[in-house]
Design goal:
Blueprint lengths: L2 E5 L2 E4 L4 E8 L8 E6 L6 E6 L9 E3 L7 E6 L4 E6 L8 E7 L14 E2 L3 E6 L1
Parallel strand pairs: 2-11
Antiparallel strand pairs: 1-3, 3-8, 4-5, 4-9, 5-6, 7-8, 9-10, 9-11
């Protein structure tokens, strides 16, 4: 059974930075694609970023337009952990952020194709 646990959320002022971590057990994250999603109050869950398996086309990443240039997804294979580095945060980035893993090599933005989800971590950006 795959378990995913996020950490690193918190309260930050606009323009600040945070790093979210996603640790997994039961699956080697480097061998499969993973993604970050977020859900703000009253809104649907939305795609944020994804990273392919390390072996897929020398590893690819994908970002939502709203975070491109401000967020960066990466992995530490030795720690079996995925990171989301968030900078220049805006109040509209406030949401619960979820990490998800899927049993395929390539990235995809559709949440339905991810089979293992964490419980989420709250990110609040004050203006």
């Amino acid at each position: 059974q795959v378990q995913v646990v996020e950490s690193g959320g918190g309260l930050v002022q606009a323009g600040g930075s945070l790093r979210l971590s996603c640790a997994a057990s039961g699956r080697t994250l480097s061998s499969f694609a993973a993604g970050w999603f977020r859900q703000a109050p009253g809104k649907e869950r939305e795609f944020v970023a994804a990273i392919s398996a390390s072996s897929w086309r020398s590893q690819t990443t994908d970002y939502a337009d709203s975070v491109k240039g401000r967020f960066a997804i990466s992995r530490d294979n030795a720690k079996n952990t995925i990171y989301l580095e968030m900078s220049n945060l805006k109040p509209e980035d406030t949401a619960v952020y979820y990490c998800a893993s899927r049993p395929e090599l390539w990235t995809i933005r559709n949440a339905n194709y991810y089979d293992s989800w964490g419980q989420g971590t709250q990110v609040t950006v004050s203006s």
